[in-house]
Amino acid sequence: METSALASSLAVDLSRAQFAFTVGFHILWPTLSIGIAWFVALLSVLWWRTGNVVYRDLMRFWTRIFALGFGMGVITGIVLSYEVGTNWAGFSRSVSNVIGPMFMYEALTAFFLEAGFIGIMLFGEGRVSKAAHSFACLMVACGALFSATWIIAANSWMQTPGGAVADTRGIFHVTDWWQAVFTASFPYRLAHMVCASFLTGAFVVAGVSAFHLWRGQHLAASRTAFSLAMWLALVLAPTQIVLGDLHGRNTLVEQPVKLAAMEGLWDTTKGPAMTVIAWPDQGAQKNLFALDIPHLASLYLTHSWDGEVQGLKTVPPADQPNVPVVFFAFRIMVGIGLVLLATALAGLVLRLRGRLFATGWFQILAMATTPLGFIGVLAGWTVTEAGRQPWIVYGHLRTADAVAPVSAGAVTASLLIFFAVYNVLLLAFLWFAARVALRGPADSSPPTREHPGLDRTNVDSLVPPTLEQAGA
Q1: Closest CA to 419 of 9, 17, 29
Q2: pTM assigned to the model
């Protein structure tokens, strides 16, 4: 009996590890696709309205990067649906009346929209009018956004369920679709994730453009893309911090135990300190080697000097998440957000001094920040999902009760296969994406040199002036 319980516990842990690996791998590509799709849509509109060939060259270049990321997202996303059925049969049985229709709405709105227009986006430029091509790019970008909306609606219901009741068999039935879709945490999660995707895309564009500026190639296109990316970063980085604050205050109300794990707060406290860093000892239910700043957590969580925040000890240890995982993932996410904000502000200072395109260390910094958005998204996703444990539907269905009756050996075998296949896919993507990125955009515009202006992107032709133009 004891051996059977251990085997069952091992199967749950392996199923969690497998789903964490596959969905963590998958989330990278929608993040890239959403950000780059909207950047391509912006470039297509600028090309349509201005006729500037630099925008056309950039649109063609970033469309190729988008296509690679979009393909990876489709391939890695299909696996998740099968995995829910094979490894999480208990979850499927209980929540299919709620989650199933949301996945169907995603297919009806997002997938059909993307499938209907992506052909025009990828191959229609030059074959349809500029306006029609811009419209197709916008529809694909909207489709990516709709997809994220329905997926986050489903996840938000699992985090803060509403609009449904469970019968005596534990099967949920929807009583109010409005409440089931627009749950208490949904708007905050959606805004936080979409902004993260835009911010990640902006720093990918900035990093690739900085590489070409550093190499002194494709200057006109790279300066334009770098300038646009740094403007976007300057708006999106502080916006993301504000959205994170709103999301945190929502979590304080809706999932106080998760928030306590994020802060490493064990006892319910008035005016709690911010724990900058510590080692949460879950066995001893306390922090070791803590560095605290008095009252700071109270200020940003409750906007009050002596606000009360619920601690982890208000629930039994068996109902607490893995505190060290949530605690450190939260700090990684916040730290990356601050680094991206500092980079955007440094870009503004250099722009105002007319040094945005000519500062070598900033170009290297921009290249170094390219992957940080992805790491931040993975850290944030870890906080969201690990902080919900031990519940798969918060407060209603435990993760251990949602797993399918599969053997640990079968889960291990499929996990190893996924690990091998996904790494081959990742290497293939990096190989092709790197080739495209290193080649860079085309140079259709005439040779140029920088001209002083508001954002230092205005350029003059390098064609020598005639004697008459020179005043001779």
Answers
A1: 17
A2: 0.87
CB atoms inside a 10 Å sphere around CB 456: 20
CA 174 to chain centre: 29
Measured between alpha carbons, how far is 58 from 212 in angstroms, rounded to an integer? Answer: 13
Q: Which of 113, 50, 57, 9 is nearest to 390 (CA)?
A: 9
What is the per-residue pLDDT for 136? Answer: 93
Q: 52 vs 27, 45, 46, 322, CA distance in Å?
A: 34, 11, 8, 53
CA end-to-end span of the chain: 100
Of 16, 31, 82, whose CA–CA distance to 379 is shortest? 31
pLDDT at 256: 92
The pLDDT of residue 2: 58
Amino acid at 364: I
| List of the chain residues with pLDDT < 70 | 1-8, 445-472
How many residues does this entry show for the chain? 472
Please state, as a whole number, how many other Cβ atoms lie within 10 Å of the Cβ of residue 197: 25
Question: pLDDT tens-digit profile of 226-267?
Answer: 999 999 999 999 999 999 999 989 999 999 999 999 999 999
Of 270, 273, 266, the C-alpha closest to 313 is 266
Instruction: Report the interhelical angle of 186-215 vs 360-368 (nearest 10°).
Output: 140
